[in-house]
Predict the structure.
Amino acid sequence: MPRSGRGVLFPNLIPPNGDIAKRQRGFNHQEKSTEDLFDIRKFLRIIIIKIRSLMNRRKYVEDLKKQSEIVWDIIVIGGGATGLGVAHDAVLRGYKTLLLEQSDFAKATSSRSTKLVHGGVRYMAQGDLFLVMEALHERGLMLKNAPHLTFNQEFVIPVYTLWDAFMYTVGLKFYDLLSGRLSMGKSYFINREKTLSRLPLLQSKGLKGGIVYHDGQFDDSRMAFALAESCADKGGMVLNYFKVTNLIKDGNGKINSIRAVDIASGDEFILRTKLVINATGIFADEIARMDNPESKPTIRPSQGVHIVLDKSFLQSNSAIMIPKTSDGRVLFAIPWYNEVVIGTTDTPLDSISLEPVALEKEINFILQTAEKYLVNPPRRQDVLCIYAGLRPLAANPDNPASTREVSRRHKITLSPSGLLTIIGGKWTTYRRMAEETIDRAIKAGLLKEAKCVTYDLKLTKKSSDISTERLNIYGDHSIDIEKMISENPSLGIPIDTRLPYTRAEILWICRNEMPFTLEDILARRTRSLFLNAGVSAEIAPEVAWLMAREFGYDQKWQEEQVYAYNELVKNYL
Ligand SMILES: Cc1cc2nc3c(=O)[nH]c(=O)nc-3n(C[C@H](O)[C@H](O)[C@H](O)COP(=O)(O)OP(=O)(O)OC[C@H]3O[C@@H](n4cnc5c(N)ncnc54)[C@H](O)[C@@H]3O)c2cc1C
């Protein structure tokens, strides 16, 4: 859409005179709110929206202040896949549950995955059959329970020797077998011609054929929001930007409260609880040290890097899986929205960070490996986004330096003072990990008995196989966004044609999903940063303006947010 035409198409939200820069200079919160208040219908609509919000941070914080004497059944620390899964399970069993996340939900590892709902073909090769079987079962449940965010993805393993063709065909038949009645489709061998018709841009030199198999694919951070919203809907409280700073014990040395800081206001809270669950992924040892300063390291961080390219580099709806790259690692090239994600690496690290940065050697490794398999080899300047994530692998006490041999299975431990910690695992198994964590607390007598109900709990009322309709990523709430667009069609136009997201989505997100920073919207509630980091920086001023308008922030806030976002984007390019 031409920038000069926006004022006409988007009459309620754009000042009449200008492009984004002018609009920012001309933004005056005082004028805007006075003008809005005169429009009583608009004012009432905003009030109704605020009351009906799915999640409302301001209200939660006010409630916490008012009810400072409340004793929670469970406080979960960490708002990634693991913590949200645990809180979700707990709320649904009827426990009074509070989840605290120091940054944004899914800010750390849980928005930086390969986006696979999978058993893990490579873990089968490592002989970890129990892990594969468990993950395949959970894969099936996740696809059934969250059909709006997951779908069945076809993969092809290209083979260049007859031995590999035999090995992988047998191996994937076994993978099918392990998935039992929750199979997503049979695997089978295809000849060279059929492989090339599925993957027209695959290097054909020496190609013998391919093995087709199926796994799931999903949007990781949108899944996190689906869990957070379901928690809130069922009466739990989930708070982002709320950092746990200490654990407090009673006279018997048992944890009975936590100290936490509201990052938004700097206010400190002491919150009472019967049970604290440490679900902080790579940060789990920091929480463990709050419990016992002498506690030994349990996490071995390992960095995985992905690059995102235009889909034209793959030109296929099938994904490629390379089981053994030059250094023995697995590499995927997977269609994701309108792009293709290629990764991942596995580099042991000694330090952890909320914002890990890809190493140049990791990026080069991915590009060089892609060059071996793709007819049009991607160059550095073709990369739309580079993202790094840290696996919270449970350390192997016998070989702490290694990451590849460390089991990907989760580990649950209970400290003498009652800190229940869950580490490791995968996004795919989040539900099972949560069930086992709460069961463990019940078994230890920390909670009264209640049955897990998440096995077939749907996160949307929509039927399966609807993930092709783009707004379905918002589940049942897509209707609300569609309504906004039908009332004001200009809201339905993408902010930039190179990304799918519309203004209606940004406004809906502001009202319902507790974004606090510009990054929260561009990186995790929409996937703009991950799909195209450069374009996401271009739309940042407009999204900041929309946020400011919704929340009543001033121009300084917008400028600071856009500056911080531009700094962040440098790590993704
Ligand atoms: C590169 C890569 C690819 C992957 N691909 C896949 C895949 O395709 N499929 C799959 O199933 N799995 C995959 N995984 C694994 C999966 O992403 C992780 O197992 C999962 O996201 C871990 O979630 P988590 O909640 O344990 O950790 P995190 O997502 O890191 O969440 C922990 C949270 O705790 C918060 N926190 C820490 N300290 C505090 C505090 N003091 N107070 C409050 N909050 C705090 C952090 O801010 C953080 O948000 C992948 C992992 C990586 C690294």
Remarks:
- Residues 1-38 have pLDDT under 50 and may be disordered.
- The first helix runs from residue 6 to 9.
- Residues 385 and 533 are 5 Å apart (CA to CA).
- The two ends are 25 Å apart (CA to CA).
